[in-house]
């Protein structure tokens, strides 16, 4: 705990940062929330009288086919949470149709493909037609309400169109990030029992071609549930394999469809999508989000956190393969009828000016990205920024990992020119939308703090040792939430018990986030990284346990332990420690040893995806263990972080003699 006290103390020193005048001057119209006092009033009502608060907002922000009979029910104790009971609506109608009817020619999607010169935009009317055609194809293949459909596509408008088409017919989308391997895709398709997969022939990223369809074919080998694959021609390479009767090209299949088909009404509590995410143990979980509550909080958080107005242009640089892309590239902006930029490439392609050319070309008003991208630009691409006029920006968002105060300052100055509001938004796949976050222009923030809870979120800091909630300010511990909120995940697909065990059991009556946090003097929240074996690499959540499972399966590996260490560029990086089986590899022969390590990395890339590759593999003769045989990861963490002198209590360790050898193995590595 001594460390934690230092952290709260440091946080207390941070100054309040107020929204710059320029932010207010450049708003298209008045703020939706006038000031801090109004936030406090609204917040209090959201906690004390959620029925009135959310009942009114749900009617104001969403179109309901049938009104709801009751705003909320269920409890964290029972894990039976439901919102907007008996209400019926369609997510696609709310994101597309109603805007196409009111403003058919308003831009909905802006496509920035890998090849910069091929950018284009489409209107709400065009989006409606494209979505209807894909929805018609799915219906013709027998996809019905409640069926799951996988989407394995790069960050193209077609990914958004596919998701909306699935939602339109009441089916459930399960987007699998297109950087996942064939094996990971298979696990997810099988777990969700997907009937159809929507993908493309090949993908383009950073000038490279990725053989997406081939990966899909490999992943679906032997998978019975999938009857059809819809293949968007991204490159049009005629050599791509198509299985007759199963695989159909998007343009050909859509050509036979009508440009309008009606939406299928769904119950507010029907699932809208599954999104698989890693936890500390076991297989990835299919987190279940439901239509009504998820959509409402997507709209509300996009509106209030970003101060998003209909004429704005929102640029979320994240991928639809992750929750950020779901909520803030698609459902949030589109539910509000606002244009959203769909960016397929990388911040470095064709050069480090790419983000800023996009901002200046489309006059983006909002930019939302993970700190890892900013660290990269700060390190190698800073000279590009001032070449472009990015003065259209009004709000800059940060997401996915803690943003260090100095990076916050850099973001504010270099990108925002001290003219923007910075919102460091803390949330998770499971929360569906922001949990703790500044509201642009509403209350002051602090560099590096997620600041105050969003509406409906009652945060609690819990002492992990006693399980007791710590009251008052100036406390640190693990972060939980003691209220329910509309967009919280309702379940883990096909495994409700796992939902309860993971999120609701650790502290009875609370939703457990898995993160460490502090609440400072002013009641502001500071997120301090994960409290479990999840590492956050470039804003991607990885389970060290999952990587260990892959490495353990390698013939030469006897035992292994993966840990996260701080990394200047990627936030955290994975380091794998392993001991080898006798004769597995002659590590004194550098060439042989390099080849061996490479084969291990290839295993991880092949079974999970390239982004999960360990940064270093360190071979030791023994891993530190307790007397009962448990690997002591905290010891490895300290050694790998160069903090061996703070290793702490080793009285439970059975084999302390291995420590000097691990230290020297680490020294040799770096
Ligand atoms: C985990 C959730 C949230 C969308 C992208 C990641 C970490 C997220 C912040 C932030 C500090 C953050 C937490 C959280 N995290 N945002 N602003 N400050 N940490 O979603 O993959 O579900 O990961 O990301 O550790 O639990 P995810």
From TrEMBL:
Gene3D superfamilies reported for this sequence:
3.30.300.30, N-terminal domain of ligase-like
Q: Which parts pass through the membrane? A: none
Annotated AMP-binding enzyme C-terminal domain ranges read 546-630
Q: Which domain of life is it from?
A: Eukaryota
Catalysed reactions, semicolon-separated: acetate + ATP + CoA = acetyl-CoA + AMP + diphosphate
List its EC numbers: 6.2.1.1
Query: GO biological process: any one?
Result: acetyl-CoA biosynthetic process from acetate
User: Which is a Gene Ontology cellular component entry for this protein?
Assistant: cytosol
Record keyword Nucleotide-binding present = yes
In this chain the Acetyl-coenzyme A synthetase N-terminal domain maps to: 39-95
Gene Ontology terms for molecular function: acetate-CoA ligase activity; AMP binding; ATP binding
Pinpoint the AMP-dependent synthetase/ligase domain residues.
97-484
Q: Give the UniProt keywords, A-Z.
A: ATP-binding, Ligase, Nucleotide-binding
Which family does the record claim for this protein? Belongs to the ATP-dependent AMP-binding enzyme family.
Task: Please name the PANTHER family in this protein's record.
Answer: ACETYL-COENZYME A SYNTHETASE, ACETYL-COENZYME A SYNTHETASE 2
What name goes with this protein? Acetyl-coenzyme A synthetase
Organism in which the protein naturally occurs: Hanseniaspora valbyensis NRRL Y-1626
């Amino acid at each position: 705990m001594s460390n934690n006290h230092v952290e709260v103390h440091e946080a207390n020193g941070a100054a309040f940062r107020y929204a710059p005048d320029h932010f207010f001057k450049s708003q298209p119209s008045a703020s939706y929330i006038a000031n801090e006092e109004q936030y406090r009033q609204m917040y209090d009502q959201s906690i004390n009288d959620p029925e009135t608060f959310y009942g009114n907002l749900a009617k104001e922000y969403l179109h309901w086919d049938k009104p709801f009979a009751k705003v909320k029910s269920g409890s964290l104790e029972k894990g039976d949470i439901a919102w907007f009971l008996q209400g019926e609506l369609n997510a696609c109608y709310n994101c597309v149709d109603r805007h196409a009817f009111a403003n058919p020619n308003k831009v909905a999607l802006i496509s920035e493909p890998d090849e910069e010169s091929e950018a284009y935009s489409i209107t709400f009317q065009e989006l409606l037609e494209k979505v209807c055609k894909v929805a018609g194809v799915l219906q013709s293949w027998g996809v019905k309400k409640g069926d799951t459909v996988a989407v394995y596509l790069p960050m193209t408008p077609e990914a958004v169109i596919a998701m909306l088409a699935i939602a339109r017919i009441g089916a459930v989308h399960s987007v699998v990030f297109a950087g996942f391997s064939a094996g990971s895709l298979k696990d997810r398709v099988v777990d969700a029992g997907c009937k159809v997969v929507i993908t493309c022939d090949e993908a383009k990223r950073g000038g490279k071609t990725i053989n997406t369809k081939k990966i899909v074919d490999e992943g679906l080998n032997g998978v019975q549930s999938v009857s059809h694959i819809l293949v968007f021609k991204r490159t049009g390479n005629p050599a791509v394999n198509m299985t007759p009767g199963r695989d159909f090209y998007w343009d050909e299949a859509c050509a036979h469809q009508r440009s309008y088909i009606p939406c299928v009404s769904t119950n507010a509590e029907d699932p809208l999508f599954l999104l698989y995410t890693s936890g500390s143990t076991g297989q990835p979980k299919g987190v279940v989000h439901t239509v009504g509550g998820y959509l409402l909080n997507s709209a509300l958080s996009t509106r209030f956190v970003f101060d998003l107005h209909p004429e704005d242009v929102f640029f979320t640089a994240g991928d639809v393969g992750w929750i950020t892309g779901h909520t803030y590239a698609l459902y949030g902006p589109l539910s509000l009828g606002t244009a959203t930029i769909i960016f397929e490439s990388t911040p470095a392609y064709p050069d480090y000016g790419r983000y800023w050319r996009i901002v200046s070309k489309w006059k983006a008003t909002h930019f939302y990205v993970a700190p890892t991208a900013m660290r990269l630009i700060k390190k190698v691409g800073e000279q590009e920024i001032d070449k472009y006029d990015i003065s259209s920006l009004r709000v800059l968002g940060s997401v996915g990992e803690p943003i260090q105060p100095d990076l916050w300052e850099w973001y504010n100055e270099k990108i925002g020119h001290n003219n923007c509001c910075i919102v460091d938004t803390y949330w998770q796949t499971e929360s569906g939308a922001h949990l703790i976050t500044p509201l642009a222009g509403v209350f002051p923030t602090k560099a590096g703090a997620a600041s105050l809870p969003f509406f409906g979120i009652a945060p609690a800091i819990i002492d992990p040792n006693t399980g007791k909630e710590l009251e008052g300010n100036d406390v640190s511990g693990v972060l939980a939430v003691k209220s329910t909120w509309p967009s919280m995940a309702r379940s883990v697909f096909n495994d409700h018990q796992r939902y309860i065990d993971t999120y609701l059991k650790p502290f009875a009556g609370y939703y457990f986030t898995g993160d460490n946090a502090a609440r400072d003097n002013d009641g502001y929240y500071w997120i301090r990284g994960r409290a479990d074996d999840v590492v956050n690499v470039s804003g991607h959540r990885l389970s060290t346990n999952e990587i260990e499972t892959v490495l353990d399966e390698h013939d030469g590996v006897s035992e292994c332990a993966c840990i996260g260490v701080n990394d200047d560029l990627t936030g955290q990086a994975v380091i794998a420690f392993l001991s080898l089986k006798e004769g597995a590899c002659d590590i004194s022969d550098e060439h042989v040893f390099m080849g061996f390590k490479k084969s291990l990395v290839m295993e991880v890339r092949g079974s999970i995806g390239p982004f999960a590759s360990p940064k270093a593999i360190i071979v030791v003769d023994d891993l530190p263990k307790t007397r009962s045989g448990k690997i002591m990861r905290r010891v490895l963490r300290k050694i790998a972080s160069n903090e061996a002198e703070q290793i702490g209590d080793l009285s439970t360790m059975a084999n302390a003699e291995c420590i000097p050898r691990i230290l020297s193995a680490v020294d040799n590595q770096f």
